[in-house]
Write the structure tokens for this entry.
Amino acid sequence: MVSPKAPGVEVPPNAPGVEVSPKAPGVKVPPKAPGVEVSPKAPGVEVSPKAPGVEVPPNAPGVEVSPKAPGVKVPPKAPGVEVSPKAPGVEVSPKAPGVEVPPNAPGVEVSPKAPGVKVPPKAPGVEVSPKAPGVEVSPKAPGVKVSPNAPGVEVSPKAPGVWCPLMHQV
């Protein structure tokens, strides 16, 4: 009988009556081996996030976890993670950097004053001042009063309520 520890002797891990420690140097033990528990943190051990009974944190080094995996919650701020604002159960702040949220998204309220936001004057529940920069209001719009002497306004002599003196003699 030869000792498994003798130099130059190779004993397979599955030899009958032989127990090999998962910690032995140069020994690779599959995570699925019966009666073997391998820590995901062990050096040189790769454990699939899909293995039954294995919990791998999303921030483990070298581990990529899909945001779509069931039961996995990935924060929108995690490095290298892109989470769609439309993903179920995901709430993304409109203020998050690099996130574009349309003003008409359900349950989203966007201030007309937010930088880079263009809100049409006709949007429901939105009141836009005629004096706001970049806003053009038609003089014909209901409820709008335009002074005849406003810059850039031409008033026809035929307009009602306008007095036009005679320019020639009869």
